[in-house]
TrEMBL record:
Coiled coil: none annotated. GO terms for molecular function: hydrolase activity. This is Glycoside hydrolase family 140 protein. InterPro entries: Apiosidase-like_cat_dom (IPR025277), Collagen-bd_put (IPR024749), GH (IPR017853). Residues 93-113 are annotated as: Disordered.
Length: 457
């Protein structure tokens, strides 16, 4: 055993899997707008690691989890069955003869013994290792194509759902993503049966529906008994590619629509444009989304009232390496260097600011901005009882209404989404209106957050 493998083995042996302490079960907050973990506010900072189970071995998986933990991520989104021929890096198939109703399990779970380490043993290990890193696993039981092609169907869905729920229903760090990049109006009976069966066996674990691009779970499943929070996929298309959908890059509109529904349920952008992926995904030779773009999606959604945000990177979501099977979306970088993409390292600054103030009382409030623009020029605002945030993607000057938060005075500062640094502005009376001019020139990607804290001192 070489030194690197020995070090990894020692690390895995000594790291305690204190799942209940590291990742207490998630619940919906009393105001039905946010999530809590063990009774404390929980900000979902997610990463789309869709093909992790089929592409990475144990060593690579632990490297990925440790890196994302260091970067401030606390949720990974993983598909369990991408196809009915799914195998892991140890060549263990998930199913018998491609039938979701017949998961392939074997006696024992020792990876060193031939025939004693199957697909589900590896998933068990991933769930446990994620918990040890303080990370929740948002699992898609079956990608949408399986239902569309009727491999997952009305005859076998209940059996498969029962297997999944009985095996993972007690893990405190599991969240269920029903669906899987699919049209919820297609094969609805299958998705409803999957959600209903899992929820009956594992009622305390949260569940949502991951829909196809430019749609939300809420339009069909908002009142489904198994849906605890909504998820939308704002998708990968630019304003120029929007077609008939007027929302385009304005992902904050999905948040506003979801929060206007009754009964109230939390919502999140589960798949915005990925860093380093071409605009539109399937349109060749298009510009690629950059760090500034993924920051904007995160800040817009959260300022609008989302309970967190999911980030994605082209090479990470498919764990691309030279010779990878079924590589998609013009990848050009190995996943190991891609894990340090600028957007990935900057997402933590969103989480840090939101967690620094009382989270559960925060509400979107666009009335704070007196001279708002559209598209990239829009300033997104939200506030708590004694604080307010206003995010400008372009760094253009804007006018803020004061007096909406508690305190005779307000202390103002600029917060950088790029490095998390604060720049003090001034302290002044909490009344009237005031013009703010962010540092630097006005241009896309010169984004800043105005932070106001009310004070009586």
């Amino acid at each position: 055993m070489n030194a690197r493998k020995l070090m990894l083995a020692v690390t895995l042996a000594l790291t305690p899997v204190a799942a209940s302490a590291q990742t207490p079960p998630l619940t919906v907050s009393a105001n039905h707008r946010y999530l809590e973990a063990g009774g404390k506010p929980f900000f979902w900072m997610g990463d789309t690691a869709w093909l992790l189970l089929s592409r990475l071995n144990r060593e690579e998986t632990d490297f990925y989890l440790a890196t994302r933990q260091r970067q401030g991520f606390n949720v990974i989104q993983v598909m369990v069955l991408h196809t009915n021929k799914m195998t892991n890096r140890y060549d263990a198939p998930a199913l018998v003869e491609g039938d979701p109703g017949r998961p392939r399990t074997t006696p024992g779970n020792d990876p060193a013994k031939a025939g004693e380490y199957d697909y589900w043993d590896h998933l068990d290990w991933v769930v446990e290792r994620a918990a040890a890193h303080g990370i929740y696993v948002a699992m898609v039981p079956a990608w949408g194509d399986l239902a569309m092609e009727r491999q997952l169907n009305e005859k076998n869905v209940a059996t498969y759902a029962r297997f999944m729920a009985e095996r993972y229903g007690k893990a405190p760090n599991i969240v269920w993503l029903n669906g899987g990049d699919t049209r919820s109006e297609m094969r609805s009976a299958v998705w409803d049966a999957l959600g209903t069966t899992i929820k009956k066996i594992a009622p305390r674990q949260l569940m949502t529906f991951h829909p196809i691009g430019r749609t939300a779970s809420s339009w069909q499943w908002h009142e489904a008994p198994w849906l605890d929070f909504n998820m939308f996929q704002s998708g990968h298309r630019s304003y120029a590619q929007e077609g008939p959908n007027a929302i385009a890059e304005d992902n904050w509109r999905y948040v506003a629509q979801d929060l206007a529904r009754t009964p109230p349920k939390p919502t999140i952008d589960g798949e915005p444009s990925y860093e380093n992926i071409p605009h539109g995904l399937h349109e060749q030779n298009q510009p690629r989304w950059q760090a500034a773009d993924v920051r904007r999606y995160g800040w817009w959604a959260v300022m609008a009232g989302a309970f967190g945000h999911s980030y994605g990177e082209n090479h990470i979501m498919q764990f691309f390496a030279a010779g990878s099977k079924d590589a998609n979306f013009e990848p050009n970088l190995h996943w190991r260097p891609a894990i340090e993409a600028p957007g990935a390292t900057q997402m933590r600054h969103l989480r840090t600011l939101i967690e620094s103030r009382p989270m559960l009382e925060r509400v979107p409030d666009q009335s704070l901005i007196r001279d708002n623009g559209t598209r990239y020029d829009r300033v997104a605002a939200s506030r708590g009882k004694s604080y307010a945030f206003a995010y400008s993607y372009t760094g253009a000057p804007f006018t803020m209404k004061l007096g909406a938060i508690a305190g005779r005075q307000v202390k103002a500062s600029w917060y950088s989404p790029r490095d998390g640094a604060f720049t003090p502005i001034a302290t002044f009376a909490n009344r009237g209106e005031r013009r703010f001019d962010p540092p630097g020139e006005t241009k896309a990607g010169n984004d800043w957050v105005l932070v106001l804290d009310g004070t009586d001192k």
